[in-house]
């Protein structure tokens, strides 16, 4: 007499078979392989739709058929580890680096990275603007000890490709076709929120280094050194003023990591 599989066995086989060999579960289910296949296709389609929503420019660049095939392969290779599909897709840019049909599109993974970063920034929690009155109480002798906190939506991307221009000319509101030359200067991009707008700023190497130093909780003295190593002629005062004016800097403390200045969105 053959023992019937337990509910736990069925659930485990069902979960592991969604993106693998469905033969592991088809013999356990009275509904059979066909109905399991319908469910399997539905799960993969949900993943594809999530990727299509998060990576519209990537999809537009390669076309619907190419993107559907890539997204389907990615869905089979990389199941979601979260119940929220808004968190699905962080590994998609890296997948495109090894996806053979995209091997001649060297810029494509960084376009996808920018889109994922935009998605993260858009959904980040709000940060209050820097308290300038409180900052004004710091004695000039202590400026070097300042450690700045950046807003929750801050991200950065360094790339040899003009992915910000590629992204821009492929937005729905951009009507005029425009040729983007891939042999342009390297991009040092800061992505951040300004009120409800996600901004993508192509900054100098020094400003990028300064912002990254602040993101790693370096003091102003150490961050200045990092920035000047990247760009010896950088005006530190004007760079810091720009970061404050764009609300990228959201808080500060002396000699260490600033306390969080976030509020629920």
Structural class: alpha+beta
Rg is 24 Å
Largest sheet: 3 strands, antiparallel
Strand order of the largest sheet: 3-4-5
Low-confidence stretches: 257-265
Q: Report the total helices.
A: 12
Topology order in helix (H) and strand (E) letters: HHHHHHHEHEEHEEHHHEE
Give the mean pLDDT. 86
Shape: globular
Number of E strands: 7
Provide structural commentary.
The chain is an alpha+beta fold and 265 residues long. The protein folds into 2 domains: 1-105, no CATH class; 113-265, no CATH class. Helices cover 47% and strands 13% of the residues. It has helices spanning 7-17, 23-26, 32-54, 56-62, 64-77, 92-98, 108-122, 132-135, 163-169, 205-215, 220-230, 236-245; strands spanning 126-127, 146-150, 155-159, 187-194, 197-203, 249-254, 262-263. The strands form 3 sheets. The protein has a 3-stranded antiparallel β-sheet with strand order 3-4-5. A two-stranded antiparallel ribbon has the order 1-7. A hairpin with a 2-residue loop joins strand 4 and strand 5. The termini are far apart.
Short structural description:
The chain is an alpha+beta fold and 265 residues long.
Features:
265 residues; two-stranded antiparallel ribbon; 12 helices; 13% strand; disordered C terminus
Secondary structure elements and pairings:
Layout: H1 7-17, H2 23-26, H3 32-54, H4 56-62, H5 64-77, H6 92-98, H7 108-122, E1 126-127, H8 132-135, E2 146-150, E3 155-159, H9 163-169, E4 187-194, E5 197-203, H10 205-215, H11 220-230, H12 236-245, E6 249-254, E7 262-263
Antiparallel strand pairs: 1-7, 2-6, 3-4, 4-5
Helix pairs in contact: 3-5, 4-5, 4-7, 6-7, 7-9, 10-11
